[in-house]
Write a structure and sequence with these properties.
With 435 residues, the chain is an alpha/beta fold. It has 14 helices and 16 strands. The protein folds into two domains: 224 residues, 3-Layer(aba) Sandwich (Rossmann fold), CATH 3.40.50.2000; 168 residues, Glycogen Phosphorylase B (Rossmann fold, 3-Layer(aba) Sandwich). The C terminus is likely disordered.
């Protein structure tokens, strides 16, 4: 179960969930169903029946969309305002399918209530939850960022109230209690980074319920069927091509990157940045205008290529030398870093959280001080201006945790949890012999 289907709203977590679902389908042990939330009328409609929010994909009846309005979702408490989505529709859906295991990838736009519903209806079914960010901890889109832009290290009613004065400290206390009550039904949480695992342990998730499990990824081949890590590795040319892959929003640090490019353009005029960014149209008018103006001011040095089809990723990665991840927040386990490493590309990234955990400075990439365009410009200058550095860092790119190993781990997890939740078989009472 997840909050968006990648065909409707592309994102790293969404793509991972779909890849995982397809890989589970290929096994002999799992018959998976995918339930993904979608907004009303995003384009061509999947098939369905009147009077229900559940619809199936035309070409895959094992994939379900559940249609919900964002306007009907209470972002503060993480619940749908119209409770019939639980008491009627999800109740009927779960009773009809009776899954052996439910693996939540995300509950945004659906609601934490579905966890408690599943625990009540299917008490023997293990519930697994993959943590992709800090949304349960932080009301600010799960980013753990203060309103002044500083990184937030921990939550408390007082600190959260400072960011959102219109919500009292009592509101934040109750928010945490409500969310933790729903999450208490989860049997195991999977954390794709150790940094994120520790944040949730500090927040109150019992440590014995937390397990580190990175995202499994499929191998990538180029058009000729060769390992994509080697694409362009022996090219005799300057390593001066940068690429950004991801969503265009206020947290991804594109403003930092564009300001750094102004400095880079004056010192290394042959350096070029391609921005492969999705969902710009979903941002505020002010952010869209600021972004477009910055790109226009850097004409000849920056190209905004917009969103891309996933099938083109090997081609786009092969055209780049360095992948830049300038996020302003902690991140978790950015899938773009795995994508870069799968294609043999060193990464230039912010020096905190899941980014610093996944990229080793001077081994397979370079760190810069988070939010600092001058330090980012220095890192880019070092990358493009140091002979042999690209080859050195390319050679240090690690192997990525494979989807096959990930699937094997998950199947073991599912079976172990199912066994632990199976009813205890009672021995028959001994016969009473009279006399």
């Amino acid at each position: 179960m997840l909050h968006n289907h990648p065909t409707v709203r592309p994102g790293g977590g969404e793509m991972y969930a779909l890849e995982l679902f397809e890989a589970l389908k290929a096994t002999r042990e799992i018959e998976p169903l995918l339930v993904a939330r979608m907004p009303p009328n995003p384009g061509p409609q999947p098939s369905g029946h009147p009077g229900t929010p559940f619809k199936t994909m035309p070409d895959d009846p094992s994939q379900y969309f559940v249609v919900t309005e964002e306007a009907g979702f209470d972002y503060f408490l993480g619940t749908a305002r119209d409770k019939s989505i639980y008491t009627r529709y999800f109740d009927e859906f779960l009773r009809a399918h009776r899954p052996d295991v439910i693996h939540f990838q995300h509950t945004q736009f659906i609601g934490y209530d579905v966890i408690s519903l599943a625990a009540r209806l299917l008490p023997r079914a293990p519930l697994v939850y993959t943590l992709h960010e800090y949304l349960s901890i932080c009301h600010r889109d799960g980013q753990m960022l203060r309103m002044n832009g500083d990184l937030c290290t921990h939550e408390s009613p007082r600190r959260c109230n400072e960011c959102y004065p219109h919500w009292s400290q009592q509101h934040f206390f109750l928010r945490k209690q409500l969310i933790q009550t729903h999450l208490s039904h989860i049997d195991l949480f999977l954390a794709p980074s150790r940094f994120l695992l520790e944040r949730y342990a500090d927040w109150g998730i019992p440590r014995e319920k937390l397990r580190f499990e990175d995202y499994g990824r499929l191998p990538v081949r180029d058009a000729e069927g060769h390992d994509a890590r080697d694409a362009g590795a022996r090219a005799d040319r300057p390593r001066n091509r940068l690429a950004f892959f991801g969503q265009v929003n206020q947290y991804k640090g594109l403003d930092v990157l564009l300001r750094a490019m102004k400095i880079v353009a004056s010192e290394h005029p042959d350096v070029h940045l391609w921005i492969h960014g999705a969902n710009l149209e979903m941002q505020s008018d002010a952010l869209q205008q600021e972004f477009r103006q910055a790109v226009e001011d850097l004409e000849g040095h920056v190209t905004f290529a917009g969103p891309y089809d996933r099938e083109r990723l090997p081609e786009l990665m092969a055209a780049a030398d360095w992948v830049v991840v300038p996020s302003r927040w902690w991140e978790n386990s950015p899938l773009v870093i795995q994508e870069a490493f799968l294609h043999g590309r060193p990464v230039i990234c912010s020096d905190v959280g899941g980014m610093a955990e996944k990229v080793s400075d001077g081994v397979n990439g370079l760190h810069f001080r988070i939010g600092d365009p001058i330090k980012l410009a220095e890192a880019i200058g070092q990358a493009v201006g140091t002979p042999g550095l690209w080859d050195q860092l390319h050679a240090g790119v690690p192997e990525i945790f494979s989807m096959d190993e990930h699937i094997a781990n998950l199947i073991r997890i599912y079976h172990d949890l199912m066994e632990s939740k199976s009813p205890v078989r009672k021995l028959p009472a001994p016969a009473v012999v009279e006399g």
